[in-house]
Amino acid sequence: MADDKGWVDPGADFDRVSVELSSRRTGMSFQRTRMSAERTLMSVIRTSLSLIGFGFTIFQVFQKLHDMQVVKSSMAARRFGEALVLIGIAMLVSGIVYHCTFMAGLRAERKMLKSQGLIHAESQFPPSLTLAVALLLLLLGFLAISSMVFDMGPFGS
To answer: What is the per-residue DSSP string for 9-24?
Structure first.
């Protein structure tokens, strides 16, 4: 690029390329952050699934032992199983809320940087398969706890 005196700045092209590369790195950092949020939600799903599954198993085992009259009372084990399922559901709900809130903030930040021309933001964030699985597990958790507490639903005896 030449200035008003006709001098050419050899660093002008370098500066333009440097800004372009920086913009692309920032855009990619949004993708890495989004994937990190997905991994965090997967961790919440794994822990919630363990709590819900283990709680339901404890509940069912002691219910069957009580039905076969092997144990006189299974109330403590039943309550413990119910508590584990409820903790799993609560953890999953809080994980879903956190994920949705975080992703909304990330999208807003990305939109602002795009409007300022600091990043290109050409690629869209795809729908979250992890969030869909979390919502399905939440439904399953609600079915399990309703089966345990009200003895109804697909898991009732």
So the answer is: -THHHHHHHHHHHHHH
